[in-house]
């Protein structure tokens, strides 16, 4: 059984202080690795001395003693202060404090903050669903939540299940109530496909909002919406 309590340590990198898991293999699947900085020093090539990054990679201002160069902590490219002045939180790289980012990256990071501030908390708080596995017609009511290290979906009911988030291949949100204009639909469940740890077999599990009167359907709908965003983050992480 996986552990939900993983130690962390403070690490100083060229980009700033980061809070990382002691075991890097147990890091959040939503996190991104620090990029390699584009070299900003002089180099000798073919007997000639040249500057590896002579101009801002956005406005093309030439670097000199007055126009200094800065690296974006998210993409690693070189920019002038004007094009890389914003310091924005970057939880996907586990930075403790806001870090310098270029204009394009800062917009992306600011959009991601809503996911880290709200959606992850919703997923970790959990919600109640009725699940069926494969082609089984026998449902089971479970409390589903995301582990504190974001690596597992814990399903607790009559039985205990653990699904490793990184091994989820598809997430399909099930909805009902479409109108001709495409609005007013609500999430009623989800269908996921995943590979169990140590297996290459693709399994399927269906989640539906439980009909149990004690279940909070609004909470379940919020959990499904958060899971949809988490899946998007997961697929983006695999591409980067």
What's the topology here?
Layout: E1 8-13, E2 16-21, E3 42-45, E4 48-51, E5 69-71, E6 78-80, E7 86-88, E8 99-101, H1 103-125, E9 127-133, E10 140-146, E11 152-156, E12 160-164, E13 168-176, E14 186-194, E15 203-209, H2 217-239
Antiparallel strand pairs: 1-2, 3-4, 5-6, 7-8, 9-10, 9-15, 10-11, 11-12, 13-14, 14-15
Helix pairs in contact: 1-2
Question: What is this entry, summarized?
Answer:
Keywords: Metal-binding, Zinc, Zinc-finger. With 240 residues, the chain is an alpha+beta fold.
Structure explained in plain terms:
By secondary structure, the protein is an alpha+beta fold. Helices cover 19% and strands 34% of the residues. It has two helices and 15 strands. The chain has helices spanning 103-125, 217-239, and strands at residues 8-13, 16-21, 42-45, 48-51, 69-71, 78-80, 86-88, 99-101, 127-133, 140-146, 152-156, 160-164, 168-176, 186-194, 203-209. A seven-stranded antiparallel beta sheet has the order 12-11-10-9-15-14-13. A two-stranded antiparallel sheet has the order 1-2. Strand 5 (69-71) and strand 6 (78-80) form a beta hairpin. Helix 1 (103-125) crosses helix 2. The longest helix is centred in the middle third of the chain and has 23 residues, at 103-125. It is elongated. The model has no long low-confidence stretch (mean pLDDT 85).
């Amino acid at each position: 059984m996986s552990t939900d309590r993983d130690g962390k340590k403070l690490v100083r990198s060229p980009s700033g202080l980061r809070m990382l898991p002691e075991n890097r293999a147990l890091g959040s699947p939503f996190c991104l690795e620090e990029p390699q900085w584009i070299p900003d020093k002089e180099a000798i090539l073919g007997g000639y001395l040249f500057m590896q990054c002579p101009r801002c990679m956005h406005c093309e201002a030439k670097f000199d003693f007055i126009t200094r160069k800065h690296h974006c902590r998210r993409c690693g490219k070189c920019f002038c202060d004007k094009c890389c002045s914003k310091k924005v939180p970057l939880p996907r790289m586990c930075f403790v404090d806001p870090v310098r980012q270029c204009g394009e990256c800062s917009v992306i990071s600011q959009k991601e903050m809503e996911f880290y501030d709200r959606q992850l908390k919703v997923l970790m708080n959990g919600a109640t669903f009725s699940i069926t596995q494969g082609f089984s017609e026998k449902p089971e009511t479970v409390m589903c939540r995301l582990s504190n290290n974001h690596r597992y979906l814990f399903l607790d009911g009559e039985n205990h299940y653990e699904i490793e988030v990184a091994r989820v291949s598809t997430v399909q949100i099930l909805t009902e109530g479409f109108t001709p204009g495409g609005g007013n639909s609500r999430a009623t469940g989800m269908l996921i496909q995943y590979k169990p740890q140590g297996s290459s077999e693709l399994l399927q599990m269906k989640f539906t909002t439980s009909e149990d009167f004690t279940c909070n359907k609004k909470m379940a709908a919020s959990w499904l919406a958060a899971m949809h965003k988490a899946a998007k983050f997961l697929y983006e992480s695999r591409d980067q």
